[in-house]
Write a structure and sequence with these properties.
Blueprint lengths: L1 E5 L4 E5 L3 E6 L9 E7 L34 H4 L19 E4 L9 E10 L17 E10 L4 E10 L4 E10 L5 E6 L2 E5 L4 E7 L7 E6 L3 E7 L8 E9 L9 E7 L4 E7 L5 E7 L6 E3 L4 E3 L2 E7 L2 H16 L3 H4 L6 E3 L1 H4 L5 H12 L5 E4 L27 H11 L3 E6 L3 E2 L4 H5 L19 E2 L5 H16 L5 E4 L21 H19 L4 E4 L9 H4 L4 E3 L6 H12 L7 E2 L2 E2 L12 H8 L5 E3 L7 H23 L1 E6 L1 H4 L2 E7 L5 E8 L9 E3 L9 E4 L5 E3 H7 L1 E3 L7 E9 L5
Parallel strand pairs: 22-23, 22-32, 23-24, 24-27, 27-28, 28-29, 29-30, 31-32
Antiparallel strand pairs: 1-2, 2-3, 3-4, 5-10, 6-7, 7-8, 8-9, 9-20, 9-21, 10-19, 11-18, 12-13, 12-15, 14-17, 15-16, 16-21, 17-18, 25-26, 33-34, 34-35, 35-40, 36-39, 37-38, 37-40
Helix pairs in contact: 8-9, 11-12
Bound molecules: (2R,3S,4R,5S)-2-(hydroxymethyl)piperidine-3,4,5-triol.
Length: 741
């Protein structure tokens, strides 16, 4: 890791473990901040200027001329060269990163480099989730630029991390002029690649079907994904990758982009007629209007760019390690989580103290460590039509109160966790009757109900304070050690009585800032609380949420086979320990499929692992398997949480079987999970080539005396035992054994 400034070449070079990123600020190019290179590592101090020929640049005559800072740009140049933070109106007709509406009503903006700062370490952003690091493990570059006409001052912030192939970027705009400005776009990241020879990869989805991988070759024009839903959403994860056509799991170049934000976003790849590609990520400019008065500043969220020359697998491992070491709360990143059972799929709204205690009694000897009471314990909520906002316990159901219930569960030796949906309000609630204006709504229009609820206007401090107080009071009222923070609808009718008409375009972002403020207060005041985010399943599974909660509920679809694709998509970016994954009952409530109880456990072991079923109703045979599954959790969870993830085979691709591995960082053990989705005739055995092992070491298959070379397992492969039937699975645990060497 290093950041180097070359005075001679006017370049900044940011080096990661195996990539370089180079920026040029040549005075003879009128102090534009040019993007010169992002790719495999190159020597420091190379003159990339002549190689930055995005088309016609090589013949740009002005290079020879003496150009003043305020000289107008040459459109032939601005439309084709690579920029770090492109602006509109002066000849770059591609997508632009910044849009500032000035006092005259136009958005012509022209930022020129004014200086830089390089320092060890990284500052956390205020009020936004951000990557963190110490002076030993990261280094930061700030580039300063100015639009001389409006006085807008732009800071581009870049951090590289020791031993990592990740680069974190954000931008800050300060109104240094005399007139009010309106920010209509402030992207977090932009860079230009010199080729279009990539596949565009993204994760699309919907409720019960989150994060499906799509891969298509880049075409001329713009390919983009976005959210206009107020949350990152089910439909597109805030992630894209550009992968060389030949890149696969194991090799080839890949650029991964993941936006650290939980609201409206847009990530795009624009291919020009010259065959260059502009990559851009940030808050969605759709409906975004932020007022910037003189002296005020706006900080964009951060965006992570990962470079991999080890294919998608290399990209995944870089994201995973970065998030474990520099994003997820340190208190939890590598900490084992209590093995929980959640009441939702077991009981939905139909429970009371007695039923919950009987659950706890049944599970206490099976090794389950925490009981989570999901939706339905407050107000008079017996279905999803009422009571959001009335965060006081329903004593008709929870007889004796919350503390009594928690104490009783604790007495049985179990911890207790609770569900809340703090961002919402039901029209049928005391809160709404008292404060109808606390819900987002637009004057004279009837606001749209979704799941019978409105969204609270978290742009308002008094609303946030009320919400925080409710959450705080619930958690303080008993020994509550876990909170599942849910969010079950998207934003509509985004209007606030608090803000003037010309500030309504700020609301979607203010809402997200409000959510962040609430979660920040919560984790600061309850540092040992385990927070799990959730949003109608996995609609807010993004790095912004991971800054506050080390785990996120992956999907309401708990069918083991559906989960293979959902978890494969999730693991592409996010560490295994962040994936909320439970064993549920069959036939599965989403698809009606029945899978073996052990297969459900093997699939859930890839994530946080827990249960989500009525333990009093499952068969004796299944109940008897729980202690074995619990001991597998204890045996393998350290490895799953801390090891490196390798995708070996994908059911999504082959339609027959799925296989993934976790290998210890020191390569001393590995866990292989194999799921045979479809049984086929004449498949007596299947050979699987393992990944990530030490080729010079020997590995013993746990439970046997058989020792195999790492090279053998990786190059020739291992034989999977014959299994008869569909939905069958096996775990193979290998431990280092050099007795044969
Ligand atoms: C949606 C979540 O994804 C479920 O797990 C459950 O908590 C329900 N909400 C409760 O309403």
């Amino acid at each position: 890791m290093a950041i180097t400034y070359s005075e001679k070449l006017h370049t900044f070079q940011l080096d990661g473990k195996s990539f370089s990123y180079v920026i040029g600020v040549y005075p003879e190019h009128m102090n534009f901040i040019q993007h010169l290179y992002f790719g495999a590592k190159i020597p420091v101090g190379e003159n990339l200027r002549d190689m930055n020929n995005f088309g016609w640049h090589a013949s740009f005559e002005a290079e020879q001329a003496e150009i003043l800072e305020l000289d107008p740009p040459e459109p032939f140049f601005t439309d084709v060269t690579g920029f770090e933070y492109p602006t509109p109106g002066t000849g770059d007709h591609r997508d632009t990163a910044l849009c500032i509406r000035n006092k005259d009503g136009n958005s012509v903006t022209d930022i020129r480099y004014t200086g830089y700062k390089i320092y060890k370490g990284k500052n956390r952003l205020t009020n936004l989730p951000s990557l963190y690091g110490t002076e030993e493990d990261c280094e930061t570059l700030e580039l300063y630029a100015k639009d001389y006409y409006t006085g807008a001052e732009v800071t581009l912030i870049y951090t590289v991390f020791e031993g990592s192939d990740a680069l974190v970027r954000s931008a800050k705009v300060c109104n240094g002029g005399k007139d009010a400005l309106k920010l209509e776009n402030c992207a977090s990241l932009s860079f230009d690649l010199k080729t279009m020879d990539f596949d565009f990869i993204h994760l699309w989805g919907q409720h019960n079907q989150e994060r499906n991988l799509s891969r298509t070759p880049l075409q001329h024009g713009t390919q983009s994904i976005d959210s206009k839903r107020g949350a990152s959403g089910h439909y597109h994860n805030p992630f894209i990758a550009l992968a060389k056509h030949n890149a696969d799991e194991r090799s080839g170049e890949v650029y991964g982009i993941n936006f650290v934000y939980s609201g409206n976003f847009r990530i795009s790849a624009e291919v020009t007629t010259l065959g260059t590609t502009r990559v851009m990520a940030g808050i969605n400019p759709f409906e975004f209007r932020w007022n910037l008065l003189p002296g005020e500043e706006f900080q964009s969220p951060e965006c992570v760019a990962v470079y991999s020359d080890e294919g998608l697998g290399g990209m995944s491992r870089t994201f995973h390690r970065l998030y474990l070491d520099h994003l997820i709360p340190e208190r939890w990143a590598y900490t084992k989580r209590p093995l929980l059972i959640n009441s939702w799929e077991a009981a939905t709204f139909d429970f009371d103290t007695e039923k919950l205690i009987s659950f706890a009694e049944t599970v206490k000897d099976l090794g389950i460590e925490m009981l989570v009471m999901d939706d339905g314990w407050f107000g008079h909520r017996n279905d999803d039509a009422t009571s959001l906002g009335d965060w006081f316990v329903n004593e008709n159901k929870i007889k004796g109160g919350l503390k009594h219930l928690v104490d009783e569960v604790n007495k049985l030796g179990l911890k207790f966790g609770i569900w809340m949906e703090p961002e919402m309000i039901s029209p049928d609630s005391e809160l709404y009757r008292k404060h109808p204006d606390w819900a987002f709504a637009v004057p004279e229009r009837t606001a749209t109900l979704s799941r019978n609820q409105y969204v609270l206007d978290l742009s308002r401090k008094e609303v946030r304070d009320y919400v925080y107080e409710c959450v705080h009071n619930v958690i303080s009222s008993a020994n509550i050690e876990y909170v599942k923070w849910d969010m079950n609808r998207q934003l509509t009718d985004i209007g606030s009585v608090e803000f003037a008409g010309d500030r309504q375009g700020e609301l979607a972002h203010r809402y997200v800032l409000g959510v962040y403020e609430l979660q920040e207060r919560l984790v600061n005041n309850f540092p040992d609380l385990l927070l799990e985010n959730c949003s109608g399943g996995g609609a807010r599974f993004d790095p912004g949420m991971l800054y506050y909660s080390p785990q996120i509920w992956c999907s309401d679809d708990t069918d083991a086979i559906e989960r293979l694709s959902i978890q494969e998509g999730t693991e592409l970016i996010y560490p295994l320990s962040t994936m909320g994954a439970h064993v549920s009952d069959c036939p599965n409530h989403t698809v009606g499929r029945s899978t073996p109880f052990m297969t459900r456990a093997h699939v859930a072991l890839a994530g946080t692992f827990g249960y989500e079923l009525d333990i009093t109703k499952i068969s004796e045979e299944e109940r008897a398997m729980i202690p074995e599954q619990v001991s597998m959790y204890h045996k393998y969870n350290d490895l799953v949480r801390e090891g490196d993830y390798y995708r070996v085979a994908s059911y999504r691709e082959n339609g027959l079987y799925d296989c993934w591995m976790v290998v210890a960082k020191d390569k001393s053990e590995a866990l292989v999970t194999y799921v045979q989705v479809l049984g086929r005739p004449n498949v007596h055995s299947r050979k699987i080539k393992l990944l990530g092992l030490d080729v010079t070491a020997g590995y013993r298959l746990d439970g046997t005396e058989k020792v195999y070379g790492g090279d053998l397992l990786m190059n020739a492969g291992m034989l999977i035992e014959t299994m008869r039937g569909d939905y069958m699975s096996r775990l193979y645990h290998f431990v280092l054994d050099n007795s044969l060497t």
